[in-house]
Amino acid sequence: MLVVDSVSKKYKKTLANDDVSFEVNDGEIAVLLGPNGAGKSTIIKSILGLLKYEGVIEIDNFDNRSIDAKKLLGYVPEVPALYDMLTVGEHMEFIRRAYKVEDNGRIDKLLERFELADKKKKLGKELSKGMQQKVSICCALLPDPKVIIFDEPMVGLDPHAIKELKSVFKELKEQGKTVLISTHMIDTVEDYWDVAYIMKNGKIMASKHNKPESGSEKTLEELFFEITEA
Ligand code: ADP
Fold this sequence. Notes:
It is built from seven helices and ten strands. With 230 residues, it is α/β, with parallel strands linked by helices. The chain is globular and about 50 Å long. The relative contact order is 0.19.
């Protein structure tokens, strides 16, 4: 479970997060929506413990900056950060050893799933942006994190990878994991989400649960445009 409680972050004069609070439960997929500059990256960096902020963030009741929390947390950044001189296989082996994951064939399964099995010997710098993104997803999934954050995960992926990633989201949910997906592209958000938080000007402006429409209720898209175009 992820708890963000009254988090504020200022960069000099810019209040990038203004008293942000939200929760994502086990077995839940949350989407964090908002236009560029809304404050999504700032809250993600705060959750990852990369920024100083005011407020409280907890991962399964552990302070997010503790080792216990970091062990539970996975992250797929918007821009993949691979090592130029490590191969795809070496990236996976590096993560496997760093997180003490058992050598049980999980690496090959992940690489096959994302059509990277034949790229195992390619260097990071030899991969296209989309392939780098896929390696980054495989690296994040390998330690089987309890709470996982995806920042703009669909950008640059081919249709097969998008399909696989959506089925990964579904599996993570079924396994009771906590999933947070941040995006500014409302049209990439389909029906896999359970709860959506819409951000603007550093604040959570609205939240919506994905349940059968109750007639007069606004769709997520309507709510998003109402808030972001206001
Ligand atoms: P989003 O990810 O939703 O596009 P950000 O969290 O990146 O939004 O940005 C929120 C606000 O904080 C914006 O006004 C942005 O210009 C500002 N900002 C982000 N990073 C920095 C930084 N390192 N220094 C100063 N201002 C920043």
